[in-house]
């Protein structure tokens, strides 16, 4: 299938075709003795993901584990649907996210407040997962991939308080979720993801430092794809966070409202991203959908109001 890319080490990237776009959100299948899906994508993407797994030979009873880096709808919105389609799979999530997978009602109502009517086209509705199938992780944990291969999870908040990074013992691949920002393979751009309400600068920088300390061989971004230049990318990720925070802090100090702060930060950062000067307007649109300036600036302002009202 054209939306599956073999990455080596029995790892397959699946384009979940979020909201019909290509290259927005990736799920990853580790086709080990105990097959594991990392990230489900949205609920509207669940059929795409199920078909991709089937084409890789993973039938309804073959998937051992579904693990999500965090419970935001572009990463975990499809968990309930995928759990139904693969009834033998355990569902693994950080303990701070577990109850929201069992009962998504609060998660869905807060998402609807943020996204309004575009929620349905972008994400669809998360369906509940039976509580007895959910495995809640503490700050570290290990997922058995079979044959002595493990996927170790490491608590990495800052983007979200229920976020984990996952490292594969066989490949050294680190699944970074959103904790290292959003990567655009077409242009090599990297930009932070700092939505409300959980963003916290020191915590986010701490998670990036933890990722560096894990010594990964490769970073696998949920948005989007594999990156080999680990050290440079993580350094860039920390630098981007600092730049967005410094600019937003300046807007905050000048008493700007959200719209003016967004316009200022967007203007002062646009030179940093080839996507925004690209001939192809689709690339810029993709970037804004993934790491929109309004959501980033709102998350940083929310944090600033907590730490320096």
TrEMBL record:
It holds the Pfam family Lactamase_B. SUPFAM superfamilies: Metallo-hydrolase/oxidoreductase. Residues 24-223 form the Metallo-beta-lactamase domain. This is Glyoxylase, beta-lactamase superfamily II. It comes from Nonomuraea pusilla.
